[in-house]
Structures are given as structure tokens and as C-alpha cells.
Amino acid sequence: MEQNNQWQDKQDIKSLELAELTEAMVQMGQPKFRGKQVYSWLHEKRVESFEEMSNLPAAFRQQLAQNYYINSLSIIRKLTSKIDGTQKYLLRLKDNNCVEAVLMKYKYGNSVCISTQVGCRMGCKFCASTLAGLVRSLEPSEMLDEIYTVTRDSGQRVSNVVLMGIGEPFDNYDNVMKFLHILSSPEGYNLSLRHLSLSTCGLVDRIYQLAEEKVGLTLSISLHAPNDEIRSQTMPINKRYPIDELLEACRYYFNKTGRRISFEYALIEGVNDEVRHANELADRLRGMSAHVNLIPVNPVKERGFKRGSRQRIEAFQKALEARGVNATIRRELGADINAACGQLRREYDQQRSQGREEL
Ligand code: SAH
């Protein structure tokens, strides 16, 4: 298997913010403006080698190559939906781990769902990404490269980004913040963070921390239950941060940032999808500026959870709306390539461990 280990004794230049990169260039005896030049090659033109940085002196390019590597990802597999053009990518990282990213095409533009970790340690019972635990967190460069790779492969600019792939973004907080700064910088990809959503299972301390960052993104909370009894059974994080504490942090976040919170609620038949659960949820969210996104659960074979009928799902939505809570049922994209989040990577890793790499 092809593996490039050149990165091992070098620094990751793509993970540096502009100020850090400028400082590093100055340390190498270069004028300050080199920082902006190199940054633009990496994040605006998105080249994959130092040789391509044609406005830099040749000797300096060599010096850069001796000290730094430019991260890149390779596409292991790409599935394209025949129904709506949704594309699911399995991407190889430099150390041979892999993650998933999904490109969804909407009328208003292209949206990419990216992973923030290899695996996850949050242990939600309905989720495929967490079955084999956490391997490691992604570097800022690796999250950026999920977007850069999809942009290059599809030939289309991405206008919306959602952090809803494999991993818990708040369990990789510092790298995610760096990633956000670089992604939104005018000298780089220049994505407005108004067009970015971050989804969390509810690490309350981090919600308070994010409220102070002034990044203006949309926060999505994976709630998935109307009470602590059900939530603690399906989401271990609830034992650490129960619903009341979580909702208090959400209210704080809204008051501080003025950004409406979105709640994700995966409907699992017989677990959390009765009308009485909808009523209980509505009572809890009353008075909050919130939106509930209902997701028919994606069955994961190791988990045994089932999705209810369309009727049940609509009855749940109606009950929420009757109590004044804004709720939508998530439109399913890429139904024909639908491996629930984390399943493509999981299948690949299982086959790889058996020595069968092709999918
Ligand atoms: N760790 C973060 C982001 C990744 S998961 C979080 O928990 O929010 C992205 C979303 O998919 C979360 O709302 C998660 O709860 C949900 N999800 C995971 N497995 C699912 C499944 N089998 N069916 C439906 N939604 C699922």
C-alpha cells in the first residue's frame, strides 16, 4: 500500500493561522509579507506542493519543504446518489486512518458535512461512528482538507459547512476553533461562519466557552430525548450533563449570541417517538427560540434500533407544533447510498482488518 511518511519529522504548515505562519516565516529570516503569500497558496489557491508556489524564491521553497509538509487527503471511495446527486466520500488521512465527508446539493448552494475525529468516544447507542471508540482527533489541516478535497473533486465551491460527520467537535475544541478561523479568513477559503453549523451531543462547558468566542456559527444540539431517563439510556453524556443543565447553557448561548439553536431529534420507534414524548419535549423547550429537526433514525445493524412509520413521525411533528415548537422533518438526501454516519468507514476498516481492501 502506498504510504508517504515524509510528514513524520516535519511540521504541519496548513494548520497554522495567518499570524502564526507569518511569525514562522519571520523566524526563517523572511520578510513579513511571505506569511500572506504562503497562506494564500495553501488556502486560497490550495496547491499541494511547495514547488507550485511560483512567486517564492527557489531556495526558500526548498527550505520550506525541509521543515514543513503540506497535508492532503486521498479519495478512497466515492458514492454518488442517483436520486439527488449527493456524494459520499471516504477519505484517507496521512497515517492511513480514514474519515467520511458528504457533499449535498441544495437550491441555495453546496453543503459539505465533515468529520472532526477518527471515531468517537461519546458512545451514543444509535450511532455507528462510536462503535469502535475514538482513534484520534483531526488536525485543523485535515478538516480543511475535507472541504478542499471535495471542492477540487466536484469542481464546485462549497457555501455551507456542517460539522456533523464522524466525531464530537467539542471533544476536539482547540483544533476546531483553529479550523474555523482559517476557513473563514478572507485570505483563505473565506467562508462566512453564518453558513456553518456545529453539532454537539452536549458538552455543556464547551457551549459556555463557545458563547464567548464571537464566531457567529449555528449551534445544533443532539437532544434525541425529552427526559433524562431516556436520554441517559441512549446518550452516556447525559449522565455528566443532564438536560436541564444543557438547556440552561443553550439559553445562555442564545442570549449571548442572538443565534437561534437547532435541536436534533432522531426518532427511534418505541424509544422516544410517542406523542407524549413530543408533549414533554415541547414543555421543556417552551419560551426558547429553538427549532427542532426531526430525523427518522438511520438503522445501524449493530444497534437494532428501528425507524417508525411516516405517520408516527408526522404525528410527533404535529404535537410539537400544536404546542408552539417549530419542527421540521429532515429531508433525506442520498437515500440510495445511505450508510448512516460512520458506516462507510466502519465497513472499510472491518474489510481492511480482514485483508480485503476493495469495497
Ligand atoms: N458528535 C456530534 C456530531 C456528529 S453526529 C453530535 O453528537 O451532534 C451528527 C448527528 O447525527 C447527531 O445529531 C447524531 O446524534 C446523529 N446520529 C448519529 N447516528 C444516527 C442515526 N443512526 N440515525 C440518525 N441520526 C444519527
Q: What's the arrangement of secondary structure elements?
A:
Elements: E1 11-12, H1 18-27, H2 33-43, H3 58-67, E2 68-69, E3 74-80, E4 87-92, E5 98-106, E6 109-113, E7 117-119, E8 134-137, H4 140-154, E9 160-163, H5 173-184, E10 196-200, H6 204-211, E11 218-222, H7 228-234, H8 237-240, H9 243-257, E12 261-267, H10 275-285, E13 290-296, H11 310-322, E14 326-329, H12 343-353
Helix pairs in contact: 1-2, 4-5, 6-9, 10-11
Bound molecules: S-adenosyl-L-homocysteine.
S-adenosyl-L-homocysteine is lined by residues 122, 124, 126-127, 164, 168, 199-201, 222, 264, 266, 295, 297-298, 300, 340-341.
Give the beta-strand count.
14
Task: Classify the fold: give the CATH topology of the largest domain.
Answer: TIM Barrel
Largest sheet descriptor: 10 strands, mixed
Question: What topology, given as strand order, has the largest sheet?
Answer: 3-4-5-6-9-10-11-12-13-14
Shape summary: globular
Mean pLDDT: 93
Full CATH superfamily name of the largest domain:
Aldolase class I
Number of helices: 12
Mind telling me which CATH architecture of the largest domain this is? Answer: Alpha-Beta Barrel
CATH class of the largest domain: Alpha Beta
The low-pLDDT segments are: none
Task: Output the radius of gyration.
Answer: 21 Å
Please indicate the count of domains. 2
**Which percent band covers the strand fraction?**
15-25%
Coarse structural class:
alpha/beta
Question: What separation lies between the terminal Cα atoms?
Answer: 16 Å
Share in helix: 25-40%
